[in-house]
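User: Here's a protein and a ligand (zinc ion). What would the complex look like?
Assistant: Let me lay out the input and then the predicted complex.
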Amino acid sequence: MTHVLEDEVTLYLNGRLESDRVASIETHLSDCTVCKTRLDQTLHFITQLADIGRRQRVYASLEKRREPRFASEGILSLQLLRPLSFERLTGRIINVSRSGAALSLAVSLELGTLVQVRVGTMILLGEVRHCAKTGDDFRIGVRLEDVVESDLTPRAQSP
Ligand SMILES: [Zn+2]
């Protein structure tokens, strides 16, 4: 099988890839170290480089949508990007601000984990900075590195 194209790696990390493509890429990634390395490098580029333009875009994007929208939708889907996992966890968004996002999950996450969080049509990329048990759940603090609006219409589950 041919390697994953670089553009597709970026779209995958940003959560903007069509779901049938996601499945085949994940199959490929699970046993191709070349592509796994490429994915990791792209992730590094997205999250680690100081990019003032991007940070301003994150802020502008968050300014546009007021918190009630996040609050009303609430349900999130989370994927670990580093360490990479193809499992999607479900949780709740507590709030999103310039300083980051607060999430509630049933499991704890290691500090420093890079995650992709989907809330409605918003996709947040960030790093886990806090994790604390609160009641039955864990409250996770994520420093936002990027915010992407997905232009994919959510697919209806086909029978
Ligand atoms: Zn490959």
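Summary: The chain has a mean pLDDT of 84.
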